[in-house]
Amino acid sequence: MADLRIERTGSHEFTAHNARGASVRIGRVGAEGSFTPGELLQLAAAGCAAVTVEELVVRRSGEDAPFVATVDNDRRPGSHEYDALHVALDVDLSSLDAAARERLAAAIRTAVERECTVSRTIEKGTPVTLDIATGGPEAGTAGE
Questions:
Q1: 71 contact partners, CB below 8 Å, separation of at least 6
Q2: Helix 37-61 and helix 117-124: axis angle, to 10°?
Q3: Rounded CA gap, 128 and 142, in Å?
Q4: What is the pLDDT of residues 36-87, one digit of tens each?
Q5: How far is residue 69 from each of residues 20, 63, 73, 139, 141, measured CA to CA in Å?
Q6: What are 100-103's contacts with CB under 8 Å, separation 24+?
Q7: 86-113: per-residue pLDDT in tens?
């Protein structure tokens, strides 16, 4: 069984689960209390950047340093793809002098570029495969 799964819970409503017990609601644009798949993709890029650099920030600015990651996108009207994602990290480095802030900002950028699995995968253009099992969720064999 896969560690990640999504199950239909209603009309245009789905719930994603991982093996650690976490879940998130997924739906179409405008669905209350859920994320769209596109929002999750964008949040994955921003979340990966945040998780990747958290230790760098906390080590230099303290455990309670304010830290927010946001993400936006470029998308042509009517298109079904993003032309670009824009992740922004708003990190309070006011306790550091200007030179230390510049060094830490450079280290943050390098860490994300080298270690963020999500943005590296998106930039690479990793293929996505699709297998279809026709025997129902329990059958588990493609093409049955």
A1: 42, 43, 45, 46, 85, 86, 87, 88
A2: 130
A3: 16
A4: 999 999 999 999 999 999 999 999 988 888 899 999 999 999 999 999 999 9
A5: 24, 16, 14, 41, 40
A6: 100/60
A7: 999 999 999 999 999 999 999 999 999 9
